Amino acid sequence: MTANSMQKIKAVIFDMDGVIIDSEPIYMKIQEELFNDLGFSVSKKEYDEFIGAGMHYMWHYLSVKHKLPFSIEQLITMNNKLTYDKINNSNALETTTGFIPFINNIKSKRLKTAVASSTSKKIVNLILSKLGIIDLFDIVISTEEVAKGKPEPDVFLKAAKLLSEDTDNCVAIEDSTNGIKAVTRAGIKCIGFLNINSGKQDLSSSDIIVNSFSEIDLAKLNH
Predict the structure, then answer these.
(1) pLDDT in tens, 76-105
(2) Cα 198–Cα 175–Cα 132 angle in degrees, nearest 5
């Protein structure tokens, strides 16, 4: 970080799944249904490796392992359609405990906000809309919109660019190993969000690790 870029945090970038909403148990249940329909099962340990990495990574791995007679694009389409339909018919979605007070606080300080997710844009928009919080974000972006998904930094670099902020002035909140790798590779400060439902994730390369939004003090990340 250069001396002339040592400024206060001006933007907060949120991963969605496992951070804004405790969605991994929801996704796992939906995907188990699809795995069963395709004639195989996935262990919890194996599934945890896919968290934060995106659909392409998961379905490429599973397609090769189980010799599936579909293209990666077909499998992702099946997965996204089932997920969208299940979530669209759900009335049980809730934000993570403490998220609403946290984002209201940072918005009151006029910080910019973004969502940078590995989930399809259509599903991200659906979830944020059903939660009634989509208008709290200046930018919503999916890895569908960049060349490479997490753990590559593309989605966070694009989020910072769309927010018109230097990466030195951003902080991102992530709950997965793949997401944290993406944030750090982008040169953005990282808050590791410990979510037990996101499986055994390595958060050690984060600048700080928290168990809840109430523990986050952005002032401590300012340089």
Answers:
(1) 999 999 999 999 998 889 999 999 999 999
(2) 90
Tell me the per-residue pLDDT of 11-47, one tens digit each, with 9 for 90 and over: 999 999 999 998 888 888 899 999 999 999 998 888 8
Hey, is 158 helix, strand or coil?
Answer: helix
Same structural domain, 156 and 171: yes
Residue-number span of the structural domain to which 214 is assigned: 3-22+94-221
Question: What CATH number is associated with residue 45?
Answer: 1.10.150
How is the beta sheet containing 139-142 ordered, strand by strand? 139-142, 112-117, 11-14, 170-174, 189-193, 208-210
Q: Note whether 193 and 19 are within 8 A (CB).
A: yes
The total number of structural domains that make up the chain: 2
pTM of the predicted protein model? 0.86
The pair phi, psi for residue 169, each rounded to 5°, is -100, 10
